[in-house]
Amino acid sequence: MSGPTYVSVPAEVNVKPEMTVEAFIKGRATALRELIPNPIFLQYGLTSIAATSSAAQDAV
Questions:
Q1: What pLDDT score was predicted for residue 36?
Q2: Which of 17, 16, 4 is nearest to 47 (CA)?
Q3: Is 24 exposed, middle or buried (0-12, 13-18, 19+ CB in 10 A)?
Q4: Quick one: pLDDT at residue 41?
Q5: Which of 3, 25, 35, 42 has its CA 20 to 30 A from that of 10?
Q6: What distance in Å separates the CA atoms of residue 53 and residue 8, rounded to the nearest whole number?
Q7: pLDDT tier at 1 (50, 70, 90 boundaries)?
Q8: 6, 12 contact by CB (below 8 A)
Q9: pTM for the complete prediction?
Q10: What b-and-e string marks burial along 26-48, b requiring 16 or more CB atoms within 10 Å of the CB?
Q11: Under DSSP, is residue 6 helix (H, G, I), strand (E, B) or coil?
């Protein structure tokens, strides 16, 4: 088994000069929650992924 994996998703970010750091961070957090509607997939795990199909098992 491999170790933990990390996924990065490129995103366009609009930064307005009048935005506070707090507003920017809250906006990004909201956008992330919308991107990942079901957070259970964030911790699904390689063992669970491998159990989904034989192709996934071969890949893991």
A1: 73
A2: 4
A3: middle
A4: 58
A5: 3
A6: 24
A7: low
A8: no
A9: 0.46
A10: eeeeeeeeeeeeeeeeeeeeeee
A11: coil
Total residue count of the chain as it appears in this document: 60
- Token pair 């390689």 is found at 46
Pairwise CA distance, residues 49 & 33, whole Å: 22
In order, the DSSP letters of 22-51 are HHHHHHHHHHHHHH-S-GGGGG--HHHHHT
Interval 3-43: pLDDT, tens: 666 777 777 888 899 999 999 999 988 888 887 766 665 66
